[in-house]
Amino acid sequence: MASIGGIPSYILEFGDELVYFTPYTITLFLLALTFTVLVIISRPERQVDIAFGGDAYRAKEISLSEMRFRRFMAIACGLASMGAMVTGDIFNFTLFTAMVGITNVGIVAAVKSPHVQDAAYQYGLVALSATVPLFAGAAVYAAATGSLSMIELMKGTLPAVPLIAKAMLVIGVVGEGMAPFYAAKAEMFRAPGAPYVIMCSLSSLLIFLRVVEVVLLG
Amino acid sequence: MWGNYSYGLLVIMIAAVIAFFALAREHDDLHKLLLIDLVEIISLGIIALLGTDLAEALILPGLTVGIAELLALSQIYCTKERIRAAPVKGLNIEVITKADAPLILSVFLVVYGMVLSGFTGGAVAGLGLVFLFISRSYREELNLLEMASGISWALWIFAFFVFMFLPEYWFIALMGAAIGILLKVTVKMSLVGTMWGENHG
Lengths: 218, 201
Known about the structure:
The structure holds 2 protein chains of 2 kinds. By secondary structure, chain A is mainly α. Chain A is built from 8 helices and 4 strands; from the N terminus they run ββαββααααααα. Chain A has one domain. Helix content of chain A is 65%, strand content 7%. A two-stranded antiparallel ribbon of chain A has the order 1-2. Chain A has a two-stranded antiparallel ribbon with strand order 3-4. In chain A, helix 1 (23-41) packs antiparallel against helix 8, helix 2 (64-86) packs parallel to helix 8 and helix 6 (163-175) runs antiparallel to helix 8 (194-216). Chain A starts with 9 loop residues before the first strand and ends with a helix. Chain B is mainly alpha-helical. Chain B has helices spanning 2-25, 29-48, 53-80, 100-116, 118-135, 142-165, 170-195. Chain B is globular and about 55 Å long. At the A-B interface, helix 3 and helix 4 of A face helix 1, helix 2 and helix 3 of B.
């Protein structure tokens, strides 16, 4: 039962939807939880533009409703990340990952800047097409082993998971906002509002750290 | 099983390659969105290839997530291109109004839907109601339908709780869930069919 995450210390079985905590996942979960609480209680920054070559600067005006929407999306993103950290089901993991993708778009979509909206749209297209390898990976997991439960995969009694399933799962997660596709996301960071925008990067990082553990199972 | 499965997988992978190729060649943002919808269906196809109850249970959340992403992107597209909603008053579909035929067809669909029961039955019965609402020109009282949808959804969830905590009463839970989902899908589909394009609230 040993894996990269360590021995599960607590398994919550709820039908076939199970949740388990290992030292690895609980660390990631606490990180997501802390940051979500931080997003809930913190006041957003005001972006200041400094004119190049001079000492003039101006603060951007951001409406309250826009900030409210973005805070809501950042909290939803935090919840989805927490879910992805503790879930013990491959398909639930892919669903949470897809949800992180949508909420990442949502965090910046309310910004009234054409650059940011364009970037959010392009990133959304990449995230949406990434659901194909993501769900396909989960489906091949189920087809090859007959189970989607990570606890069952950990036991090592099931048939080996084909490499293609693992590869597709990783490509799917990468498409939701990691390295090569990150270019589409970079422009989104022109959006003002510090704690919310950082949620985009943090959630992608957490999801990637979790998928490393998932892929090494079974 | 694995042999048939891999053939199916091969076909769907070819479909995926074609869809992604089209996506790479397309430059118009709106067309890209439409193509993405096709790509999304491929991912559901891969899950459907499993051909088990589990696949059916996985398609529904997959579809929901796909639709949610599509709705979000369409909204961003509208904001990005500054597209405003044009007021639409009802659907201009030419169907003979106040005739008997739509009523008979609708009754047939609703009764057949009830016989089928469950999710599929709800969809069939809902289609019957949509057909009736479209072919009749008068306005329906939609609030009542919304309430019925909410209550039947609560019934469905309640039945699930009975399954989990009082498994010995499984039969009543099964009946509750079947009726709940039938009513909910029926009402929801008729609402979707009637409400779109109109301004409510």
